[in-house]
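Bench notes, afternoon.
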Amino acid sequence: MKILHISNWYPSPDAPHRALWIKDQIELMKGIADYEVWHVEVINKSPVGLKTTRLSETENSLILSFPTGRWFFIEILSFWLLVYLFFLKLSQKGFSHIHFHIAYPLLTYWCWIGHWVKKPIILSEHWSAYHHHFNVKKEGKLHRIKQIFHQPLHVVTPSTALFDDIVRFSGNGNLKGTVIPNVVDAEIFNFKQEAIRANSFFMVSQWKEPKDPFTVLEAVKDMPYVSLRIGGYGPQLHRMKDFVEQHNFSDRVVFLGTLSKKEIADEMRQATAFIHSSNYETFSVVCAEAICCGCPVLASEVGGIPEFINVENGSLVKEQSLDSWKAGLLNVKKWNKSRSEISKSALKKFQIEDSIYRLNLIYQRSYKTLM
């Protein structure tokens, strides 16, 4: 097998932490199948320009800068990038499968060229936009996106919740799909006996919608015996710092900045619990990483999170309200489950070998179907 991976989201020199879960899923097949990765994206930027970059031995980027934020133009330009990629750059490389990561906008007009390519198409989807109907009320505007999922492809999602969202959104009850959780690096995220910081909670994220750190901050503000350590970066971070300063509890909140995976794992092992407050999550890899470290999780009961966070490894907050989060913080303080058992169970659930097996099975079956 030789897999061509094409992704609209991917880490880059300018954004090294972007969509790392996509890169991790692609690298599952390292040593099992040959592959090549292309990050293909239209960026709303001047001046107009097309740039091809070799990122590594297996990774490349094809980026078109074009000053437009209009959906239709981005869809058309993305289509022409795929035409350029397939027929001018990769036509002689002999790929057996094409694995797209993130359907929109790359696959909007795939039907125009798919019958020429004649390869099995796999799609890994991670976007929460399907749950929110792309925040568009007029059905007609979404027709082109819905049609993506009426083409012959196999959809891979990190949770049943996301797959169900896509089925409802597209209206295709016969959509083929497989749930493969996001990758957790067990060499980093595992149990080690550490001294636990009493009443000290940890949060880390790329701080942007749909994350909701402010309800947690409001709760911590009113609980003087609770401290909070916060890692990560993003557009919400400035407001978060302002909130802490304005309400005079900066002595109990530490902003740690961008952290490495090892630093995140160390924080999780020492925290009373890991906190994840969000209005929606297709999976939440940080919650999975936390329980692999043995750290109990207090998280919003949304999306794919309840598929692996439960009374055995944490607690779920049913409502994004101040009272609910205060009650959740009080309950987790009393929690006394064995951290080594939490880790053992989580590492078994998120075995990389199982993900490799399921992904390999998709490739083999899709190839046989096409033949």
